Amino acid sequence: MKTVLITGTSSGYGRATALHFHAQGWNVIATMRTPRPDVLPASDRLRVVGLDVTDPESITAAVDAAGPVDALVNNAGVPSISVFEGTPMARVREVFDTNTFGVMATTQAVLPQFRERGSGVVVNVTSSVVLGHMPLSAVYKASKMAVEGFTASLALELAPFGVRAKTVEPGACLTTNFAARATNGASLDELVPAPYVPWASRAMDDFMGQELYTRESDVAEAVWRAVHDTTGQLRFPAGADAVWLAQAK
């Protein structure tokens, strides 16, 4: 029986992915910054473990508690919608600490066991923002593009040891409340420098009015395919809008 360690499983894509792997008979190590066992079903094949991807000691403790794993899914991330000119550098660093450096640190903690065993797969969940040019996403896109580049090079480094690295690129999902979490309830007038407000408002209306969206289950299924893929495919768009963007690109 195989085991997967998934970060950021308290809600959204991470929770859906944990449920999908569990339903397929895997052992699941479901990690989250603040452990909430109530968000996932009780099972002897599912353990909830605390893991803060910005805290090296937390990463080490979680990986030790997990024991041997066959797959790592780096899903934990923070959303960001902003005009770059009005984004404090402290916020930029916060986004990169979780979305980029957190992915790298967690991956580095798991790689020794993969390399020594000669098997394993790392799946990094990025975003469809890497597939097209989207407004109000300069910081967020930069953090996810960095993970795309990291994963592409990592895949080459790990191949001689029988270890694989992949990315899953989810589109926009209404049920994850991305926009609400990214703005923390603030209005555009509060978030955006005044000269940008009319333009930013139109961009948000376009985003909310798009016809194609991603479901949480789309991402869980794409992660499942990525974990099992042995064809050498690196990127897995997830969701109707992400697939459309990938094809257009």
Can you walk me through this structure?
With 249 residues, the protein is an alpha/beta fold. The chain has one domain: Rossmann fold. It has nine helices and seven strands. It has helices at 12-23, 56-66, 89-117, 138-158, 178-183, 188-191, 197-208, 216-228, 240-248; strands at 3-6, 27-32, 46-50, 71-74, 121-125, 164-170, 235-238. It has a seven-stranded parallel beta sheet with strand order 3-2-1-4-5-6-7, with helices on both faces. The protein is globular and about 55 Å long.
Radius of gyration: 18 Å
The total number of structural domains is 1
The name of the CATH topology is Rossmann fold
By CATH's scheme, which homologous superfamily applies?
Answer: NAD(P)-binding Rossmann-like Domain
Count the E strands. 7
Q: What is the helix tally? A: 9
Q: What's the CATH first level? A: Alpha Beta
The secondary structure category is alpha/beta
Strand content is: 5-15%
Mean pLDDT: 92
Please bin the fraction of helical residues: 40-55%
The largest sheet is: 7 strands, parallel
